[in-house]
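Cross-check.
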Amino acid sequence: MNYLLDKKSVYTNRPRKTDRFRPVLLVLLFVVLYGFGSLIWPPVSRPVLFLAGPLFSINGEARQAVIGTAQFFQSKKTLVSTNQALRQELREVKARAFLAEQKLNQLAVFSLHQTASPEAVVGQVVARPRFLPYDIFLLTLPAGGGETVRLNDKVTWQGRILLGEVVQLAGDNARVKLYSSPGIRRLALVGPDKIQAVLVGRGGGNFTIDLPRGLDIPVGSVVYHALNPSLILGLVGEVVKQPENPSQVIHVRTPVNIYTLKWLEISSF
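Predicted model, tokenized:
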């Protein structure tokens, strides 16, 4: 049985032919109007420019976004390479600093041997206060040095600053006790007039001296060894005077930092 089809439905369901070139023609027309519309017909250029402006603006912003992203990754890559180069340079600087320190140590030993008296033995500090109690140093002596060093030999730095004396020997090792050890008393000369006084060790390179208040002891005065005034025991760091006390307390400190010493001289005076 045949059915009559509605003409409208037949033409509606039939696939339509599409013109593939229509979008291309519209774009070309738009470009021509945008470029030459003002020459052909000036009223046409205004709406075309109105529509083209946002399109070109969006295109420019997209281009800037792409450029910004590329620059970001390029900058990140540059930062990574720069960081690696700086790390390598830091390692090289540390290596050079270590070699320079070794060279300075060698020069220091050579200088000590040159300036030390012929009887002096230069010992290397292998342990110091903070690691050993009661202001004790442990020195390693050169080969055969233990045969020339004796108990009670004096220990100095740069030949002039008297720090303590040898209290124990074991082969080529010497144990040194500083005069600043708590409770140790030494006769000393203090102040410009070299007033005789008793220097009492307080530990950590510190001493105290008790003298009558009437004696003027300026801060910074040198404290000498009483039996050998060419040797320095310390420097006056503070003078404490109290109205109710007839004496003054003078605080003295070893002129060198005992926690950083690396080489010392041992001599018998």
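The chain has four helices and twelve strands. Residues 7-11 have pLDDT under 50 and may be disordered. Passed to J.P. for a second look.
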